[in-house]
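Why does residue order matter? Because the sequence determines the fold. Keep that principle in mind as you read this record.
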Amino acid sequence: MQSYTIGQAARLLGVSPDTARRWADAGRVATHRDESGRRLIDGRDLAAFSVEIGQSGNGEEDASYTSARNAFPGIVTAIKLGDIAAQVEIQAGPHRLVSLLTREAVEELGLEVGMQATARVKSTSVHIDRT
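Structure:
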C-alpha cells in the first residue's frame, strides 16, 4: 500500500503542510515513521480522512482546485467494480469527483483505494490518470 509524506498529503488535501502536520500531531490522521524517520500516512488512512474533511467542509484553509486544464489531483477513496463497468471516486481537496469507466481501464491503471490519481474533466466526461 502506498504511503504519503506530510507534504504530499497536504497537497492532496488542499492545505498547507503546517495544517497537515497539525492534524497529524492532534491525532486526526494516523502516521508512522519510515526507516529514515520521516512521518508517513498510509494511503487508506489518508483516503478515509480526505472523505471526512471533504464531507465536513471543515478544512482550515479554503483551497481552490481549478486550473486551465481542469486537472484535479487527489486520492482514490472508493472503487466499485462491475463485470464491465467501474465507478472510481477521487477526493481532490474539498472536491469529490466520481468517474464511470470500464473495469478494464481500472485494472490497466492498477487503481486502488489510497492511491494518488488525477481526475481530468472535459465537459461531462471525467478521465482518471494514475500519478
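The first strand starts at residue 3 and ends at 5.
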